[in-house]
Amino acid sequence: MVPGQQGSRQRTQRLSGRDRSPTSAGFVFSGDELYQKALHAVVTEQRATVGWLQGVLAVTEEQAGVLLDLLEDQGVVGPANDLGGRSVLWATE
């Protein structure tokens, strides 16, 4: 297992469910505005790290991590590497 992925898997397990609505994090993901903003930012800037997304969206570290996990589930970004970065798999047209 790559370092840092255990936390990612634990977040995903805690958030399992169809709508991915982590009430403890204070927001809902299914089609919500925050997810759409994250998707737009990641694809436009071709960057995908927790720290960067946290700063761009002004969210908590946990929220940024969960958003990146959801983007990974959708095939937008790859899994976290050993430094916590992710490859962006989608490109702008």
UniProtKB/TrEMBL annotation:
Residues 28-93 form the FtsK gamma domain. InterPro entries: Ftsk_gamma (IPR018541), WH-like_DNA-bd_sf (IPR036388), WH_DNA-bd_sf (IPR036390). Residues 1-25 are annotated as: Disordered. This is FtsK gamma domain-containing protein. It comes from the Bacteria. SMART domains: Ftsk_gamma (SM00843). Coiled coil: none annotated. Residues 1-15 have a biased composition (Polar residues).
